[in-house]
């Protein structure tokens, strides 16, 4: 498997959009799309950022770079662990710096209390983003 296929699969395994990943990497989402399709070479300077943003263990990242399959004996467990690492780094980078703001906490509580249905929550958040 080519490196670009590995990073696409890893992002999908993390259950994050290209938009979210690209924002965290500091690149345009259309560039990430081209990287993931193999239409554009991934700059060497971006490799460390990809590994950091996706929270990919060093051994796994090396296997990805070499085009080798993962050595995982339990891919389901590895996927859950990868997702947990990603969410932890996302929290530290994006949520922790804002949690001291009363307005941020109120916004989170408002969103949470709006509904327990994911579709409704997504519509509500989309509406908030356009206001």
3D architecture notes:
The protein is built from eight helices and no strands. The protein is an all-alpha fold. The protein folds into two domains: 3-95, 434 Repressor (Amino-terminal Domain) (Orthogonal Bundle); 98-131, no CATH class.
Summarize the structure.
The chain is mostly helical. 72% of the residues lie in helices and 0% in strands.
Q: What is the succession of H and E elements? A: HHHHHHHH
Annotation field: number of helices = 8
Determine the mean pLDDT: 90
Q: Give the CATH topology of the largest domain.
A: 434 Repressor (Amino-terminal Domain)
For the secondary structure, the number of strands is 0
* Count of the separate structural domains: 2
Query: What structural category characterises the helix and strand content?
Result: mainly alpha
* Cα distance spanning the termini: 43 Å
> What general outline do the C-alpha atoms trace?
globular
Strand content: under 5%
At the fourth level of CATH, the homologous superfamily of the largest domain is lambda repressor-like DNA-binding domains
What is the level-2 CATH architecture name of the largest domain? Orthogonal Bundle
* Main β-sheet description: none
Helix content: over 70%
Radius of gyration, whole Å: 17 Å
**CATH class categorisation of the largest domain:** Mainly Alpha
> Poorly predicted ranges (pLDDT <50, ≥5 residues)?
none
Topology diagram in text:
Blueprint: H1 3-14, H2 18-25, H3 29-37, H4 44-53, H5 58-65, H6 75-95, H7 102-114, H8 118-130
